[in-house]
Write a structure and sequence with these properties.
This protein is mainly β. It is built from 2 helices and 39 strands. The strands form 9 sheets. Strands 21, 22, 23, 24, 25, 26, 27 and 28 form an 8-stranded antiparallel β-sheet that branches. A hairpin with a 2-residue loop joins strand 35 and strand 36.
Length: 533
Amino acid sequence: MTTDGTAAVAATGSGPQPEATRPARRGRAARVVGGLAVLTLAAGAVAAGAQLGAADEVPVGAVEVQAPPAPTTLGCVGTLQPPDERRRGDAAFDPSPVAPVTALDAVVPTGPGAGALTVLGGTGGEVERAGAGGASLRVEDVEAPLVVRAAPADEAPVVAAATTSLVTAGDLRGLSAASCVAPGVDDWLVGGATTVGSSAVLVLSNPGLTTAEVTAEVWGPNGPVESAAARHVVAPGATQTVDLGGAAAEQRALVVHVTTTGGQVVAHLQASVVEGFTPAGTDLVVPGAAPATRQVVPGVVVEESQVGAEVGPALRLLAPGDEATTARVTLLGADGPVEPAGVEEVELAAGTVVDVPLSGLAAGAWTVVVDASAPVVAAAVVTRTGTAGELDDRPRVERAWSAASAAARHGVVALPREAAARLVVGAVAEGDDATATGEGRARLRVLDEDGGVLSEHDVTVDAGTTGSWPVADLAEGAAGLELEVLPGARVDWAVELEVLQEDGALVSVLAPVPVVDGDGALRVREDGRATRG
């Protein structure tokens, strides 16, 4: 028990020990105090009938007009695309001995914005519905992309949803998860490859009512892949898939830029790897932050690996403009910042994709910070090495991609039932030095299946550190996490998902769904040159 009578919750896994079990120090560590106490991570409106006249201007102050809150619409990925059997040399070998088990989970926290929650199919038909006041729901046996729509109440709604596909054997063995996102017009997908054994499928879905014209640009290790540049027309409610193995063949590292006119789309890459006949990981590459001179990749949870290992974590970078740059890489762990030996600074030629190996890191949770003089995009991939199957000549491998974060002030993650979840929080000092002192602060709410609060925690993270906690240690039966950042250092977070099976761990990473805060007020200024007639 702590001095205020609250029970201390032990942080397990890669994080440091709770405060009660170690000497107090100003450190780069993570501490958890449970309950409702503290979770500390050291570590025109123009008047009717108006007409234009020659009268003198009359200064008129701005007035606020209350606009009604709008519903929130999120687009969700569907199930995995089947592997291309033509790439197999043995027609008798079944690359898909088990089908993906795909489900969608959604949650709306209780509060003044908690209106009805509806899941719609691609044609607009209702699939599932929950009433107002806060709720969670689950849709099983998902095949096609779905749309989640949260109606407003007195305020704009807060909502999150995620699709999870679990494949226990075959070419697509892995846990593939993605948070549902607002449809966009400009997305950067950093991940995947098309070399022998690797597959990258671009999936474009249009949840809107307007036809979308989509342009896809592709970069590889040797620069832009001109043969892959193409336009695609996606009808309302439709989905298009593009196998990049044909248009951008033999690219060991990919970045795809998707831009849209006319409508909006939800874009992602399905990336999978097979080594011979041994599955070597499947995941979904989701949109990350737009090009910027600082990128932060949260939720990078690594297993122990040796420097130079063939299989291990890596950071992918691209300077997509016309300017070459040098990227400085800093890794923020439980005990503070680390500059990876040999890759502290990475030379990036304009338009070329570079993979930076991160093997040799201590097992645990990390946040990757990239600083450059020219805008770059970034993402990280982690691996899990399992055991070999009866017909495998090597151990099976799982892979999970984590996209760069846009550092939203307020976000929510819906938690799937089939996976154990781990909250990963990193704090990055503002300014040029990502390791400078300071604190990141936030308020964490663990949500139940009715959208209510199971437990609430104050979060404090020393700048330059990362902390991680199993969600099960924070509360049982969690349906979602809501985190609201307070003034202080930048806070970036994600949720790692894990399913344990006999041949190894399957993992994926969920990014938070940003909450658009606002009171709906519009400031309108009357034109003083208009006179009433």
